[in-house]
């Protein structure tokens, strides 16, 4: 039968009455607490330091006990570090797929590669703004954040696709097309933005982290997508857009 003796600090010694069978040493990192969720790059550096310490202890343990050290991450900080790498890859892949699908939808709605390209640029600006803002307020990349980034392009396409579709079906010079587009879709797009933002506000008070973060994500996405669609996308079309004359049944303008 094995016996255990707990020493101060969480270390343990195990023996069978005659020989020492194992020695467990608990090491606490002063730079990492159990409540922290540091970024992957910073944790990777700490992991390499502990891995180097483990390698040094292997030499000591093997010469004395003919066995190598088994290192365990009790708080699973390094496990979360590896999960973050998976989250990052999944988020980037999902975002790129979302942007590609959004471009295809825009192209089908407008039949204009140039308008679709500008609209996709607006979506990318929205994505970068939302990701940058959430990083500024202290969000760390986790499962919830990776899911939200993956669906970000789908949430950002709504307003540009309405404005782009209306613009592509209006005629006249570029100024007339812009005026007609805002006359038709400016008010509906603004109303949609207001209702979506108001719908996200109750989620700010949720106790569950997913719903609270989803409310913040939805509010930021709607606001930035509306701003870039109205003041970015339409401004580009007003600057370098082309005239479009309406043809009669005989094909004459």
Key terms for this structure?
3-stranded antiparallel β-sheet, 7 helices, mainly alpha, 3 strands, Multidrug efflux transporter AcrB transmembrane fold, 253 residues, 3 domains, disordered N terminus
What does the model show?
There is one protein chain. The chain has three domains: 1-30, no CATH class; 37-74, no CATH class; 77-240, Multidrug efflux transporter AcrB transmembrane fold (Up-down Bundle), CATH 1.20.1640.10. Helix content is 66%, strand content 5%. The chain has helices spanning 40-65, 77-110, 113-136, 143-150, 152-168, 174-200, 209-240; strands spanning 3-6, 12-15, 20-24. Strands 1-2-3 form a three-stranded antiparallel sheet, with no helix packed on it. Strand 2 and strand 3 form a beta hairpin. Helix 2 (77-110) runs parallel beside helix 5 (152-168), helix 5 (152-168) packs antiparallel against helix 6 and helix 5 (152-168) packs parallel to helix 7 (209-240). The longest helix has 34 residues, at 77-110.
